Amino acid sequence: MTIVIHASHGAEDPERATLPFVLGNNAAVAGQDPVILLIVEAVHLATEGGADGVQKQGLPPLPEIMAEYVSNGGAIWACRSCTKPRGIEEGDLSREPGSRRRWRSWSSSREARPASPSDLRRPPAMLGPWPW
């Protein structure tokens, strides 16, 4: 089952920036197919060095949690409607050598969207339709 996790915080709130990746990592380890959708300030986490220095006391640094999440098969999408006004272009997204990060730029625009609902397995009917 694909689980889409919403993340809207970046370095300004280390706890809220980290918890979506902790949840996503737990889902990946449990055999689910997690996708973290970065919106608003969280899109900065997708840039090279964007997660550096982000750490909530008592938790590992966010870059370590992100690397573990990706190595467990998790995907990370960055909302194009949020990256564009912040001056973040496709080339600014982190592409670490040897990384299995699966960055996608997601947009609600039909023409600009590289992903479609068919890219994800359909959720159970009780969860309702996809929002796009």
Ordered list of secondary-structure elements with their pairings:
Layout: E1 2-7, H1 14-29, E2 33-38, H2 62-71, E3 75-79, H3 80-83, E4 103-106
Parallel strand pairs: 1-2, 2-3, 3-4
Helix pairs in contact: 1-2
Structure description:
The chain is α/β, with parallel strands linked by helices. Helices cover 23% and strands 16% of the residues. The protein contains 3 helices and 4 strands. It has a 4-stranded parallel β-sheet. Helix 1 (14-29) runs parallel beside helix 2 (62-71). The longest helix has 16 residues, at 14-29. The protein is globular, with a radius of gyration of 14 Å. The model is unreliable at 97-103 and 106-132 (pLDDT under 50).
Overall 3D shape: globular
What share of the residues does DSSP label as strand, in percent? Answer: 15-25%
Spell out the helices and strands N to C. EHEHEHE
- The total count of strands amounts to 4
Number of helices: 3
How does the helix and strand content classify structurally?
alpha/beta
What composes the largest sheet? 4 strands, parallel
Keywords:
single chain; 132 residues; alpha/beta; four-stranded parallel beta sheet; 4 strands; 23% helix; globular; disordered C terminus
Short description:
By secondary structure, the protein is α/β, with parallel strands linked by helices. It has helices spanning 14-29, 62-71, 80-83, and strands at 2-7, 33-38, 75-79, 103-106.
